[in-house]
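User: Predict the full complex structure for these chains.
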Amino acid sequence: MNMQPTPPAIRTTCPYCGVGCGVLATPDGAGGLSIKGDPDHPANAGRLCVKGSALGETVSLQGRLLAPRIHGRETGWDEALDLVAARFTETIAKHGPDSVAFYVSGQLLTEDYYVANKLMKGFIGSGNIDTNSRLCMASSVAGHRRGFGTDTVPGLYEDLELADTVVLVGSNLAWCHPVLYQRLAAARAARGTKVVVIDPRRTATCDIADLHLALAPGADAVLFNLLLAEIDRRGLIDQAFSAHVEGMAGALAAAHATDPDASGLSPGDLSGFLDLWTGSEKVVTVYSQGINQSDSGTDKVNAIINCHLATGRIGRAGMGPFSVTGQPNAMGGREVGGLANMLACHLEIENPAHRKAVQTFWNTPRMAGAPGLKAVDIFRAVEEGRIKALWIMCTNPAVSMPEADRVARAIAGCDFVVVSDMMEKTDTTRLAHVLLPATGWGEKDGTVTNSERCISRQRRSLPAAGQARDDWRIIAEIGCRMGWPQAFGWAHAAEVFAEHAALSGVAGALGSDFDISDLAAIDVAAYDDLEPFHWPRSATKKGGRFFGDGRFTTPSGKGRMLPIIPRAPAPVEEAFPFRLNTGRVRDHWHTMTRTGLAPRLGQHLAEPYLDLHPADAGRLHLQTGALAEVSTPHGRAVLRVTVTDSVGQGEPFAPIHWTGETAPTGRIGAIIPAVTDPVSGQPALKSAAVAIRPFRAAWYGFAVSARKMRPDCDYWAEAALEGGFQIELAGRHHPDDWGRAAARLLGSQAEPLTMRDDRRGVLRLAFLEGGRLVGALFISADPVAVSRRYVAAAVGSDCGLDILAGQPGADREDEGALVCACFGIGAKTILRSIQTQKLVSVEGIGRALRAGTNCGSCKPELAHLLASAEPEP
Amino acid sequence: MKRKLVVIGAGMASGRMLEHLFNAAPDQWEVTLFNAEPRGNYNRLMLSPVLSGEKTYAQIVTHDEGWYAARGVTCRFGESVTQVDRSARIVRSAGGDTPYDALVMATGSAPFIIPVVGKELPGVVTYRDLEDTEAMIAAGLAGKSAVVIGGGLLGLEAAAGMAARGASVTVIHLMGHLMERQLDPAAGALLQQDLERRGITVHCKGATKAILGDGKAEAVLLEDGTVYPADLVCMAVGIRPETRLANDAGLEVARGIVVNDAMRTSDPHIFALGECVEHRDQLFGLVAPLYLQAEVLAQTLLNKPATFRPVQTATRLKVTGCELFGAGDFAPGEGREDIVLRDPQGGIYKRLVLQGDRIIGIVMYGDTADGGWFYDLLQREANIGAMRDALIFGPAFQPKAAPEPAQLAEAC
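Assistant: Here is the predicted structure of the two-chain assembly.
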């Protein structure tokens, strides 16, 4: 008998948020992976969130780009690479190095990032490489550099567990960094950590908040200035530490001049916060995109850092400012110099000594002499024809950039566009002249750095899809073909990493914080065995925290406090009276190219939506379930309305994930103006002034299909199902013949089952093939009211006319909207159990139904269900 | 002392009336029951299964000799009443005169015979009672050809019954689709498909011109020239109330014997019920209103106030494998709305006609399980606004437990 041994689990990391959890991936032998949290990884100690848990559902070849393409024609690698190298060489020769640009990604591995940066800054000789981390982290980078001298995260995740007070500002940690949230929630349960959430929205994170401050949008710097002034008033300035700090007087003066009314908070809430923060020596201020994605984001970061510098609450256990990143390798990108205004290993591009050192190390005749264009400016330059050859790697700017329609038009108008991606069809790949297939998560080998400076190996567990190649190899091939084989001739990712580590030693000698030169001689075997570690790792320092010793990386060696004069976002105007907040949902990540493949991740919130305060909804005559048109001078979006008082009046919220591939009118980037922070160049993505009005649909639709749909109507939003797809639809005009339109949409020639109620505008069609449901369409003059989960679950199964009821009959129970994605448990099931089994706690629900016992992401929602359930009389 | 009640006709309506009467007051009336047929009450609705061979006559008898004996009913079966003498309050028959204190006329209806050449030929039958049924069975249907004129409820049951006995059957129907009074064209078409699938030929929009034959029926000729061979011709084009006795007695008769809300005729001592009556310009052919009449008349005879109000009636076809259900009004009209559910492959069709938030018409074909539930909503004039979305999917899809369906009416 031939027993197949179970293959060993491969230790790797999750490709989503910046928590950087360790993952155990075990190939199932059929091209798939079974996924578990790595109990030995310091970030997560075995935990995973729902997105990470569903990684195994995202590694199919569905939608993959499997071969290079030139103008849509499949070709071999040599032809594609020769063309790219030739066009870049030619363009540089004719128009100079600044006529080309790379736009890269915080989802690249450090090795990919290092090679891209080396090629652009060191050999092409331009600073025109920028990254989607610009949309995510640039203000933190700038704030760190202003405050500390280098882009250094001072603390560690365990500080959230060791703190007495944790302040979460501009962070929906529960949904965006779920495992870190769970660590905090567990610490709070164990030791009574006080948690403050500062967010205009009442997010799921507020579930564990002792205090939620729904401050005025953009008023974060006001609040932290008020805090600094209070620190001063209470005499809490750390006199000993202040010897290591400069600029305090100016910062305090600015803080004392700040108007308390500008925070939008009640005096009680404000003093509660001030008491908590000032009263806890062990205080961590965690911040994320709510701080960074602002036109004064850098100032907000420094307003926070000021408070920690003034009190000396930095670099010691349980205290410090803590930036959590949105991307898996934003930190790695920052370390290699992936931003246009950085060099490598935290060296400065403007500093001639730094430039010289790097140039010498790279042994290159050419070196970028000045910072390049930042993300928004790159695409402006593309639009204006100043950049004539553009290479986009591993990111989707036609969706994710502000003014995304304009960016898409700019890319479409560029002379030569190369896109390397793992997916065939994205809003951006559709605009490329040359498409290069890249390996994806599971197929790549390299390293990433998470938000606490922990460098981990991402390891290959699957073969490359089709002809896909690792990004660093693709870039290195171009470097070789452009004439620099000696500089780009690595055989293994370990060699790239070793070079990067060696360069970090050069940087360390120049005073950089990022020094991992202990690993400069790492070989392939050691690289393969590399355990997660916190940088630095050098002769002088290994891991740990920064700045507790008062030694900063500024020229003076002192930490810098800055005088912050809070700037509110530009006031809204009469024509655009709402301030649109944006963010992520629990189960999706970025533009969904990966999470969109996992059926269980598409069920939690399957459609782009708009959270609207009841007073605003009333005035606009919008109800939950209706569609609203949200517009700015830059574009429009159509979004499903949810009326909720979790957002403030005049402060609607919309998630960012939908694209031309999943919901063409749900592209939030298209409506957001490209206003940027003057210091960091990071766009303000959470404060667009928008107009909202009802979208007048003649009909609403919902469809499920075993086959991919490509609808042709004014509104649609698609989500993946087990064995098919579901889609929400709406249109201003009815098609001439619904029967034919339905057959085309669902791709079936079968004679459909039908139900119609003309006066209500109701038409329902179900297509069966061999007795099994291949597609169903529900049309109504009002938003379609059917049990989507029930209908979705019917795809591929035997059906009769009852399927057109769109809900289970008396003999089956309606599970309700999906709450626990891990175990597939719906709201109605949970409510029924709460009532029949008299459940009183989230843990009780877990014992009864298993809901919330895997990733725990749904615990806030379980708590809400508990609160909303009427006790059985 | 008991008063004398004479009942003419032992149909389903009079049988039900006597049950009510005896249950309420066993000793008030001494009853004499005349019936032209040489038998007592049986369930005329079940003649179709007898014709098809699925049941025997004995299985459809509703009141046997013992029942009559126990209640002291004098049975005068096979004896036709020839005259009613209102001034003397007696009825005359071959057996002599029978006096009454109250007289109930339950003379029923007679099949309508279309006036075409050949209608008197041997082999031309109607489908009304056990004699008709037995005549058809006796004709030896296997291998014979039969034509049914009339694609209504009775005609189709006759056609199916004869087909079940091996006859090659053609249905000639004057209208555009079968059972046009109970079904809309879509359901009629499904029914036609089902009948054709079981070997019955259906000819809609067919006007009969003549019945051809030399000494006996041999074929049916249509106006369009089509000829169908026919060893047996069954006329099932409708009924007319049997009013001869009432007419002769000088009672007020229109199309039927005119009765008031208490089922009393123009003579205060004479009552009528069943298919022979006309109430407020309306005639009755389905069993549900007849049963109501029976209830009302029993009350009247017991000197209790009662008022007959006809109800909406529903139809089921008693042809195995042809599930259909029709009730109410489904003609197109101002303010009427449809909800339609259709499975073309499965041969299922359901249509509800709404006016405002009320069901006024029901047509179902192929799956009639929820017919009773819809019919109850129709009869109760229930407001269905709140359950409109899933209404057509039936009670299993409603948010709360559905009320028990009302007693379903059937055709007689």
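The two ends of chain B are 36 Å apart (CA to CA).
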